[in-house]
Amino acid sequence: MKNIMDWERIKPILNNLYRNDTGKYGRPNFDPVFIIIFMIIMILRS
Question: So where does this one cross the membrane (predicted)?
């Protein structure tokens, strides 16, 4: 997946859409880029 696209380029866009409230409760959230990559893999495998 790293060879297909530079995922760090979309990270600023995703960070604006993704709210991280780890200071309030629970464990740290997943990286937004990881979530998008995971969703793409799930779509390709289904």
Answer: 25-44
